């Protein structure tokens, strides 16, 4: 399948920026992607032409409400939700998870159990840990398998009891890149009567999400990880969220999803969110030959996965040539479809920050540290204060950028080794 990389890159103004004549290579994507011009235009247009609060009868407030409604409808299409009522939009994933954890905690009692994984971003760990501390809940830890790099179904089944009230799962790791079999894991947890809360922040830029097919109760993601503005989105199954009593102002709406969306919404960012979803739909239009927005989004992911996976394998193969370098995640080409294109590594005798600082100086943007994958680095025995070098590909990156990055990694490691000797 032909991927229109040059036409696609032209939609992202940041990709053409230079610093003192030096190109930029954006491989910091797991922490946040760049945005298409259409997203910035939508935010600007909202602020300049429809800037008003909600609930009035004049033109700008009516237009602002339409932007809010459109954003919920767009995210319903993106996630495969049954209704825009199931879409809760807020500041970010962590804030929304804290809010929902406290809401769910209203129905929990001392001695009830929750299951957390060693694979999750801290945003899907700390809210539940602190809820457990507040309420006297029992926390059961679910490790990932260090051979498969995934959460195994048998390991989850062994932890479930008749006191399990919630299982917090990770769709794809922001450090190892591994994709979990969330549908199978959800089925096991639901059979035990537990609610299932899925963190899909790292998966959302790289694969089609279908919340009804997964069967979970909640799924959360972040727009700024899939080419949109800085905000978080929580999907909740309608019958579940409709029965919940959230913390909110007494006089605010009891309707869905408004009862969960505290305060004045980020209306201009919602305009950008819709534009980000429509960017995916546009990418899939040629391949889909028309169809609904959901169908076109699905085709967009087919195209981007077919483009990203070879880039990820190219990166993995190039890193694997370096002696003393350990990739923490799936490296088998036969399993490339079981990971997102986020690749983390360490090098014997070198701190990740030292490597990253040198590469950042070459205008190759990537990260070092634990990247909030706090439980992963501890399970792997990696010093949390050092973490890993993390390289994250998005579908606007090119093979030439990957090759240049690999050259830099080889050069920097050789230089640092020479300095040590």
Automatic annotation (TrEMBL):
> PANTHER family annotated for this entry?
CYSTEINE DESULFURASE, PYRIDOXAL PHOSPHATE (PLP)-DEPENDENT ASPARTATE AMINOTRANSFERASE SUPERFAMILY
NCBIfam families xrefs: am_tr_V_VC1184
Q: Which domain of life is it from?
A: Bacteria
Keyword Lipid metabolism tagged? no
Instruction: Provide the species name.
Output: Mesorhizobium tianshanense
Q: Where is the Aminotransferase class V domain?
A: 25-403
Q: Name one Pfam family in it.
A: Aminotran_5
User: Which keywords has UniProt assigned to this entry?
Assistant: Pyridoxal phosphate
Query: What name has this protein been given in UniProt?
Result: Cysteine desulfurase family protein (TIGR01976 family)
Record carries keyword Coiled coil: no
